[in-house]
Amino acid sequence: MDLGISGKRALVLASSRGLGLGIATALAREGANVLLVGRSGEKLAENCKAINAEGKGKADWVWGDLADENFVESMVAAVKEKLGGIDILVNNTGGPTPGVASEMTVDKLSTFFETMVLKVITLTNTLLPQMKEQGWGRILTVGSSGVFEPIPNLALSNTLRSALVGWNKTLSTEVANSGITVNMLLPGRIHTDRIDELDGANAKRQGKSVEEIRAASLKTIPAGRLGKVEEFAAAGAFLCSEPASYITGSMLRVDGGAAKSV
Hints:
8 helices; alpha/beta; Rossmann fold; EC 1.1.1.100; 2 domains
């Protein structure tokens, strides 16, 4: 299938590794020009070199930290300088620290709300006028399967990513007649460094080995395995495509069938 995004310009947040890098790579393989964002210039440069070696879409990078008070302004400037405009925005953020709901503090809520919700919404709103003017745009926000079924010991993630669900749906109805789609992509257990870190945290909390934690989690996944970044990224690339122009306000789970809800 031709996704119809060759030459499109994409900004992909938190793309130095994991899911963000996977989506950026998938978009570039479809011919899109991608701007990677992260806090490790070394990793970003290596990623761009690998993407550019494939000879399809071009990749460049810019340093960016969602905790930086000038993050939105710096991203807007980088889009203008390095891409010349924006067609696709992939909102991806790192996950917050594990913990239970009864131990959430005002400080932690405020800190992660700033980086996971406020900056995402502000950046999107700032870039929207460009998409409206050209009559085409794709906004994809990476969430978590925890917005459907809260994940134990991830209270902050369950809470803050759920806030983006209402925003995603509301915004989608406001811009649908402008040729802009707004969707969320929800990962289940996709094998990334983040999953390894969470399994380690759960093992410590429960007094078990990482292997025991991993084996127990696999029993809850009908597919019987962890997902691959490439599988998740392919779904993301499709939602950013021309053929997906009638899909908006939706949330797509990529979880191997793990969610028990309909």
